[in-house]
């Protein structure tokens, strides 16, 4: 019995090492399988940018190699834990404002944001004014027509009719 | 006695005050001028052959230096002929042209009269460095940070493009598309070397 103890010790030590090795290996494999950012995550940022080469083509749907490289760069930056705004800022610093689908709200760019609402409101006001004018005009026309069709007081037919009636009475 | 009934309200047309009309028309005019200028600028480069090239600064990639500096300004190269080559790693014809450009650089480098600048357009840095390593490009190269240099030469650039600037800073030659041979590059540069 006393002789078996070292053998048991050795067995348990090997078993323990085996379990430790399995645990470490499985941990490493879990780390290796950490999900890289999905296409959806990449495209969520890419669609806020434009292709640098093609006119007016969003980055998420552009088939060129340059855009593919940019999307891969976004994926790498997401994997590094960068936020979408940090990623966009990196692209602006490297390639300029024109990569953004929404121009930054500064300088003359404000016109893009201010002019359309002003034009819309002005259009509404003009329409409202035009409708009101048409309404007034049509009322006036209708009343003119009514007054024109109404027999005037002292009309000769009315006078004759009144005479006839008087005579019969 | 005939009496005409005219009780309809008069449809009076009330127009906006004159000053409002003037302001609106002036505003529209200014907007049109802005749009027109924007369209004109979008279609035309800032410079053309025979005009002075505005100064710009190229920040070089790591491992690239010019006279121990990590950036080059065009103004500092006055007195030399400057060859500005626009390229990108995703551009197939740039890859075709790259060995020829490096051969030309090797040809002119020793005299120090001609400087080649490679400007990398809208590229991912890692890909650009791979490209430079693949074609063993040794002349100063850097990214066009913020796309500030390219629009000086061409707003709608077609890779590759090369512009040659004389000793006085005047653009003298423009190559849209790749150079095919050293002879072709020499025919563009050599005439400018004689002019001092």
Brief write-up:
The complex is a heterodimer of chains A (169) and B (196). Chain A has 169 residues and is an all-alpha fold.
Rg result of chain B: 28 Å
The number of helical segments of chain B is 5
The structural class of chain A is mainly alpha
What letter string, H or E per element, gives the SSE order of chain A? HHHHHH
Sheet/helix structural class of chain B: alpha/beta
The CATH C-level class name of the largest domain in chain A: Mainly Alpha
Spatially, the strands of the biggest sheet of chain B line up as 5-4-3-6-7
Euclidean distance between termini CA atoms of chain A: 154 Å
The pLDDT mean of chain B sits at 89
Radius of gyration of chain A: 43 Å
Using a beta-carbon cutoff below 8 angstroms, give the protein chain pair with the largest interface and the number of residues from each chain: A-B, 30 and 27 residues
CATH topology of the largest domain in chain A: Helicase, Ruva Protein, domain 3
Q: Estimate nothing, just give the exact number of structural domains of chain A.
A: 3
CATH class type of the largest domain in chain B = Alpha Beta
Number of domains of chain B: 2
Beta-strand level of the residues of chain A, as a percent range? under 5%
Low-confidence stretches of chain B: none
Terminal residue distance of chain B = 105 Å
């Amino acid at each position: 019995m006393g002789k078996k103890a070292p053998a048991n010790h050795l067995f348990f030590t090997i078993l323990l090492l085996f379990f430790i090795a399995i645990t470490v290996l499985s941990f490493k494999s879990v780390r290796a399988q950490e999900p890289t950012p999905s296409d959806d995550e990449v495209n969520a940022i890419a669609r806020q940018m434009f292709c640098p080469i093609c006119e007016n083509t969003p980055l998420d749907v552009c088939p060129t190699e340059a855009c593919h490289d940019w999307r891969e760069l976004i994926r790498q930056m997401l994997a590094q834990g960068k936020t979408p705004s940090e990623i966009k800022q990196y692209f602006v610093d490297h390639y300029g404002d024109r990569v953004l689908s929404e121009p930054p709200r500064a300088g003359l760019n404000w016109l893009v944001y201010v002019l359309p609402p002003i034009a819309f409101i002005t259009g509404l006001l003009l329409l409202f004014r035009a409708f009101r004018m048409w309404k007034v005009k049509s009322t006036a026309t209708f009343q003119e027509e009514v007054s024109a069709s109404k027999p005037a007081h002292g009309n000769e037919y009315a006078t004759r009719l009144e005479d006839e009636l008087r005579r019969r009475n | 006695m005939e009496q005409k009934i005219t009780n309809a309200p008069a449809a009076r047309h009330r127009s906006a005050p004159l000053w409002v009309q003037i302001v609106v028309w002036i505003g529209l005019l200014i907007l049109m001028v802005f749009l027109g200028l924007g369209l004109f600028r979008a279609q035309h480069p800032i410079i053309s052959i025979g005009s002075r090239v505005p100064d710009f600064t190229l920040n070089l990639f790591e491992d690239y230096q010019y006279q121990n500096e990590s950036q080059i300004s065009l103004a500092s190269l006055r007195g030399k002929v400057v060859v500005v080559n626009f390229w990108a790693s995703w551009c197939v014809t740039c890859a075709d042209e790259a060995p020829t450009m490096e051969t030309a650089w090797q040809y002119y480098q020793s005299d120090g009269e001609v400087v080649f600048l490679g400007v990398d357009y809208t590229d991912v840095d890692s890909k650009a460095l791979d490209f430079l390593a693949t074609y063993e490009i040794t002349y100063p190269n850097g990214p066009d940070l913020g796309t500030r240099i390219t629009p000086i030469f061409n707003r709608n650039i077609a890779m590759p493009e090369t512009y040659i600037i004389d000793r006085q800073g005047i653009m003298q030659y423009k190559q849209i598309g790749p150079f095919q041979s050293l002879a072709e590059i020499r025919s563009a540069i050599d005439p400018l070397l004689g002019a001092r």
